[in-house]
Amino acid sequence: MQLIRIHPLDNVAVALMDIAAGTELKTEGKRLVAAEDIARGHKLALGPIRAGESIVKYGVPIASATSDIVPGAWVHTHNARTELKEGGEYVYEHRVYELPQTASRSFMGFRRRDGRAAVRNEIWILPIVGCVNGIAKQIMEKGRALLYGSVEGVHYFPHPFGCSQLGDDLAQTKKLLAALTRHPNAGGVLCLELGCENLTHELFLEELGAYDPERVRFLRCQDVNDDVEEGVRLVKELIDHAAAFTRCEIPASELVVGMKCGGSDGLSGITANPAVGRFSDRLIAMGGSTILTEVPEMFGAENILFSRCADEGVFQKAVDMVNDFKDYFVRHGQVVYENPSPGNKAGGITTLEDKSCGCVQKGGSAQIVDVLCYAEAVTKKGLNLLSGPGNDLVSATALSAAGAQLILFTTGRGTPFGAPVPTVKISTNTALYEKKGAWIDFNAGSVAEGEDTDACGARLLDHVLEVASGRLTRSEENDIREISIFKDGVVL
Question: Alpha-carbon distance 56 to 475, whole Å?
Fold first, then answer.
């Protein structure tokens, strides 16, 4: 198959392979000749498109033509522009789609004392302020020599914040770090403080709330003679605590899975993202939960999501989330459609609408049950929207803080990064999977080669249950785990 027309209303098709100028193409029984070279993932016109006319993909306008486009011509940034504006009116038009019938499944995970399910049993060292990052690293390195039993690793998560911050930025740092402290994948957590930071011990405890002192320990480095030695002692006690937990069978309905894309290309909305959407529908049909974030990459595709809000209250929260992010752009003097990235464009994505319509495919067809603020935890079963930016590491960190035990990350260009939780990299094309085997966990490029999207989603569900049961992701094998905290204000 050389190209695909995604929706019957589309006036463009997407090349599934590199197509040379002059190639005769078969499309729905009609003869079409490529007017110029078309790279894989890029669009070509199925018929004449006049200047000012909408370019339609996914059955919706994703751009307008800036010049007349002949049949078979390449359609991209040189002859198309966004139709997005800063404002937007939204009307609640509720739609319900049937979810697939899916038999109950289970995975081998860890059951915490409070009843929550985890897919990893690790010790996390969380710097409460960036000044102690180096100390945290030394403690981690020495602590790894003490591992035994079911405890799978010791990890630290450096960042530059926790001091010289005011207002919302300090509040977001506090909220994010407290949420990670509560994460079930951590069988034990050492919160490492300095002693003079803005984010004081008292402020952090206020945000953290009730906690198990056997699972969460605190060390204020300025209060002890040898901070590394004391930190290693506390890590040993946390390892002893976490070693009491062993894997047991847990229903898949207790999984919370984050969904994210990055380094997207023209195949993202055709292969990997729809496959993740099929996975999401299957997990939700079993009683599980998924989280979709990247609000700026919903711009231009909002109504696809808004129509599936479970009720008007959820709809209004979704509208507020999108409008708040648009206001954030405007406050900083940026246009809301300053996206996609150079890599996205090289991969065939032309406008933000193009990118967004592909991005939201990860949400499948389930009802949206809740809209979460940054670092707010999932409390409702089903599909949740989470406020967060498009940046890979910032949004993946927010997904982790919201309670995702693992993350599905689709990519057409490839990336080596890893979140605090297992991050499953899913390639949109087979060439990437074969080239970057050290980065990529799962190939959805098979959809472009004829595999049914639903079959790919079912295969992805099997893979997720394996990861939840202990199979390491590529980023885990490479010991790549990072966090990034969202900030907006001044640094003192």
Answer: 37
Residue in the block written with tokens 């038009």: 93
Q: What is the pLDDT of residues 445-482, one digit of tens each?
A: 999 999 999 999 999 999 999 999 999 999 999 999 99
CA 230 to chain centre: 36
85-99, 204-218, 221-235, 241-255: which has the minimum mean pLDDT?
Answer: 85-99
Q: How far apart are CA 57 and CA 337, in angstroms?
A: 18
pTM over 0.85: yes
Neighbours of 336 (CB within 10 A): 22
d(CA 483, CA 300): 28
| Angstrom distance (rounded) from CA 284 to CA 179 | 23
Output the pLDDT for position 490: 85
Helix (H), strand (E) at residue 312 = helix 312-331
The CA-CA-CA angle for residues 365, 370, 371, to 5°, reads 105
As a whole number of angstroms, the distance between CA 176 and CA 402 comes to 9
Bridge partner residues of 289 (DSSP): 256
pLDDT digits (tens, 9 = 90+) for 221-237: 999 999 999 999 999 99
Q: Are 422 and 467 in contact (CB under 8 A)?
A: yes
Cα 63 to Cα 54: distance, rounded to the nearest angstrom: 6
For helices 453-468 and 272-285, the axis angle rounded to 10 degrees is 60
**C-alpha dist (Å) from residue 47 to 12, 50, 435, 473:** 8, 10, 35, 44
Q: Spell out a b/e string for 446-469, using b for 16 or more CB atoms within 10 Å of the CB, else e.
A: bbbeebebbebbbbbbebbbebbe
Q: Is 59 left (phi over 0), alpha (psi -120 to 50) or beta?
A: left
